[in-house]
TrEMBL record:
It is a single-pass type II membrane protein. Keywords: Cell cycle, Cell division, Cell inner membrane, Cell membrane, Coiled coil, Membrane, Transmembrane, Transmembrane helix. The chain crosses the membrane at residues 25-47. One of its GO terms (biological process) is FtsZ-dependent cytokinesis. Belongs to the FtsL family. Essential cell division protein. May link together the upstream cell division proteins, which are predominantly cytoplasmic, with the downstream cell division proteins, which are predominantly periplasmic. It is found in: Cell inner membrane; Cell membrane. This is Cell division protein FtsL. Residues 51-78 form a coiled coil.
Length: 111
C-alpha cells in the first residue's frame, strides 16, 4: 500500500509540476506589471507637461511683475518731479501769471 501512495504522489507531482497554480499567476502578474509601467509612463508625461505649463506661466508672471515695477519706478520719479518747488513755481508762472514779488512791491502792515 505504501508503494501505491508513492506512485500516486509521483503522478500528482508530475501533473502539477512546476507548481501549476503559480504558473497561472505569472501571466496575471506580468500583465499587472505591464499596466503599472504604462500608467507610470503616462503619469510621468502628464506631470512633465503640467510642470512646463506652470513654468511658462511663472515666466510670464515674472515678466509682468518686472514691467509693473518699471512703471511703478517711473510713476515715483514723475511724482517726485511734480511735487518739487521749482515745478510748482514754473506752473504758477506759466499758467496763472503768478510771480514772486519784488522787494519794492512788498508792503508790511503792522497792527
Amino acid at each position: 500500500m505504501s508503494m501505491d501512495r508513492i506512485e500516486r504522489w509521483a503522478s500528482t507531482l508530475r501533473t502539477e509540476w512546476p507548481f501549476k497554480l503559480r504558473l497561472r499567476a505569472w501571466p496575471i502578474a506580468i500583465g499587472l506589471l505591464f499596466i503599472a509601467c504604462i500608467i507610470s509612463g503616462l503619469a510621468t508625461v502628464a506631470v512633465t507637461h503640467m510642470t512646463r505649463v506652470q513654468y511658462a506661466q511663472l515666466q510670464q508672471l515674472e515678466q509682468e511683475k518686472n514691467q509693473l515695477q518699471t512703471e511703478w519706478g517711473q510713476l515715483l520719479l514723475e511724482e517726485g518731479a511734480w511735487s518739487t518747488p521749482a515745478r510748482i513755481e514754473q506752473i504758477a508762472t506759466e499758467r496763472l501769471d503768478m510771480r514772486i514779488p519784488d522787494v519794492h512791491d512788498v508792503e508790511v502792515i503792522r497792527p
